[in-house]
Amino acid sequence: MSATATGVYHRSYRRESALRHTKAEYFRLALMIVGLLVTPYVLDNYWLSIVNTILIAVIGAVGLNILVGFTGQISLGQGGFLAIGAFSSALLYQRADLPAPLSIACAVVITAVAGALFGLPALRIKGLYLAIATLASQEIIVFVARRWTFLRDGSAPLTVDRLSLGSFEIERQYFEWQWYWILLTFAVLAVLAARNLFRSSLGRSFMAVRDQDIAASAIGVNITRAKVTAFAVSSGFVGLAGALSAHYTETVTWEAFTLDVSILYLAMIIVGGLGTIAGSVYGAAFMVLVPVFIQETVGAVGDSVPVLLSRVPAIEQVVFGLVIIFFLLFEPRGLAQIWQRMKDYIRFWPFRY
Amino acid sequence: MLSRAYRFELNSSRVPVGEPLLEIGDVSLRFGGIRALSEVSFTVRQGDVHSVIGPNGAGKSSLLNCASGLYKPQDGHITLHTRSEEGVARTHDVVAMPPHRIARHGVARSFQNIELFGHLTLLENLMLGRHIHMKHSLLPSLAWFGPARKQEFAHREFVEEVIDLLQLQEHRHAHVGALSYGIQKRVELGRALCIEPGLLLLDEPMAGMNAEEKEDMARYILDVNELRGVTVMLIEHDMGVVMDISDRVSVLDFGRLIGDGTPAEVRANPAVVEAYLGADS
Lengths: 353, 281
Known about the structure:
The complex is a heterodimer.
Chain A: E1 3-4, E2 7-8, H1 13-16, H2 23-42, H3 45-70, H4 78-94, H5 100-118, H6 127-147, E3 152-153, E4 156-159, E5 164-165, E6 168-169, H7 175-197, H8 201-211, H9 213-218, H10 223-249, E7 251-252, H11 259-272, H12 277-301, H13 312-330, H14 334-348
Helix pairs in contact in A: 3-7, 3-10, 3-11, 3-12, 4-5, 4-6, 4-10, 5-10, 8-10, 11-12, 11-14, 12-13, 12-14
Chain B: E1 20-31, E2 34-45, E3 49-53, H1 60-67, E4 75-83, E5 89-93, H2 99-104, E6 107-109, H3 122-129, H4 138-143, H5 147-165, H6 181-194, E7 199-203, H7 211-227, E8 231-235, H8 239-245, E9 248-253, E10 256-261, H9 263-268, H10 270-277
Parallel strand pairs in B: 3-8, 3-9, 6-7, 7-8
Antiparallel strand pairs in B: 1-2, 1-4, 4-5, 9-10
Helix pairs in contact in B: 3-6
């Protein structure tokens, strides 16, 4: 271990590039692993379904953060890319009879290609203008999903058969439990892949484009390629989230991919912390849990204050807005920064800094 | 002499010393009705410290931006000379290339207003200087596997030599946005050196520095030029520094070249004295 009482001293570049350095960090990692392994055995189906929703959101939020937080390209097209992932995987699985892993992999590639195409405006415009261009892509995709009858079962939404592979099939009574392990695997891999991306040269060139695009081109970064690659990589993650949500919810309908979803995902990465992978995880968990806690609270006090029961959607909207304003005002760097400050406080205690 | 033996070459140009490296021929640049540069011609030779001086608004930075591809002159040519490993001479039309392609031929630059990657650490900034020498394949990057990981450590050794040369050790892991102005200027020089430049373009590397910082920076530039063989093209307002360290000086005034020669020749040139230096200089 390279940590001593006076600081962390590395003896090789390899050690230094490791994601964790101190015993405390490894201890926290171990705690987290134990927590994740124990989760499905202590939670009931309702809470496990919420955890599963969080795991899907984590993958989507990591993908969006790669684009917005790390490459600096604002995107309002998240919902559209989720839709492309969900519909392509569902159609390939349901109508083309591809095995599930293959249909999900194809969905990832299809969404990545679509993301690169819809990202082309980013080569010419930046900032708010790009946000509007991606808003257009969001609306185009949802419009197609809404009007194209091929994407429906008659008049009903597209249904997806229960996930099965060879002799393995998701069983009804263990539905959430089995899905937990599948989604956890994908979420962990997505988080690790994103962490790796940003300690290697490709990810660094994304951040260079974000911080100073002129200087980036002067050191030899092909900005065109970096932006298109960032859109493709980000959309690949988002496509994975979409595909998994299609198989998990077993229905795919355009109503699940509206602009609200794009905004929700943007809120996740702002609340969690732009430009940090951990922040995407915290933000996804936070934004999924907020409405759940509102419902729980209203349910608990609803008998004494019945007027609240009919107002749950309105309360959700208000709290959603307040949370975003709170973070933008008081902690623009999000939950990741709050967590960092808590760790620092303990580390430096009894000193202030 | 350098205090330690360095393993890596900084200079990537194989052009013999004294031969033309960058030829600027009749370059004219207009922004609407404003003529920023009018038929400017001179040659930067391998091994020189070549200064470009002139009053504010004379077109010095515009010229540098043309050489690094950020501006495209309407008329004239800018030709970069390189040699292949076998010594075959090649010429490249800088005007026709986008900035990142020019960088790939070894033209590195620093900026007048510091343009570092402010949210990244000093180390990451310098590693980005190695961008053109690294591979950027997606899947190994995502897996932190094989070449993606190995090249990080290989190029880190190069970067560490630049850190040593510029004495930036203590700031290695600091976010560059939090560093002082003088250090940030040095990091800009370091990032340009990490490219392994054939030609180093420095836009006012000593602007806003105190005397001591200026001396340090001049020393680093001389180390890079004399000991490591890198050709430097430099814009600077401090005439003391310019006349001391330059092998050749070009003078611009209102977008025209009014003087070109050794520091002694330029100092004796009446047009230059009239336009810029003043009678007492």
